[in-house]
Amino acid sequence: MLGPVILAASRSDKMRRFISAAPGTKQVVDRFIAGETVEQVVPIIVDAADKGLEVTLDVVGEDITTPEQAAAARDAYLELVSRLKDLGLGTKAEMSVKLSMFGQSLDGGHELALANVRPVVEAAAAIGTTVTLDAEDHTTLDSMFAIHEELRKDYPQTGCVIQAYLFRTEDDARRLSAAGSRVRIVKGAYKEPASVAYQDKAEIDKAYVRILKTLMEGEGYPMIGSHDPRLIAIAQELGRKAGRKLDEYEFQMLYGIRSDEHIRLAAEGHRMRVYTAYGTDWYGYFMRRLAEKPANLLFFGRSVLTKG
Predict the structure, then answer these.
(1) Is 184 tagged catalytic?
(2) What's the distance, Cα to Cα, between the start and end of the chain in Å?
(3) Whole-angstrom distance, CA of residue 306 vs CA of residue 24
(4) What pTM, to 2 d.p., does this model score?
(5) φ, ψ for residue 133, nearest 5 deg
(6) Catalytic choice (58, 118, 134, 271)
């Protein structure tokens, strides 16, 4: 399987240098990354709002090695909140954050990440929006969920992400559903060992449906992160059976993937949110997008072979 190989490459400095220098890389990166600065991404937010879409914004970058870099990540999100406030777009755009960017992996990282993310969550709440804590590899999740629980004491709208391929997630979903959280469910995009995660695609899909059923029947607000037409149809049916109105859950898809489907779901009355990443440190995010879908890798391969 190519996915695990690509995920391993996402941690390789040698591969980072090679891919960054490849002639076709920018063409493909531009498909998945909305820009490098807040100013470049603002027109995308406005265009999405005009089309009846909402967005969640991710300032890419995960390889944080110093507290100063973690503080800079915090400040990048605070700048984003300020621009959303100026544009009156707070209710149309939320934010997604990876706690690794806020120093989670450093010494004293749990406390550091909480201290850095709290002002971002507070600023987001002040303009009428919220923050979702992205899930990363399984070793970080106990810390992420603890930070999520702490933030929800003051900002109960704070969301989190769960990953269907992990064995633990069905228990996490039951707990979070009962708590009334905002929960995004995704399949999972990190290289995880067989001791903690399903390795077979069919098993992952089955787990996704079981977990989604738990969320739909619970008291929380499910956010369905998938481009899979079959899972989207199943989600609609589970929502109907649970008696949910169309604004009582939402779909989320990545910027640059299945854009026509974004519009279709919004036109049907669904809440449709586009996960929109921007920033200069795009490599890790980009490699996971390649690993998730073979067609993305083929598209990239053709582009790299294109000279000029």
Answers:
(1) yes
(2) 31
(3) 6
(4) 0.86
(5) -85, 115
(6) 134
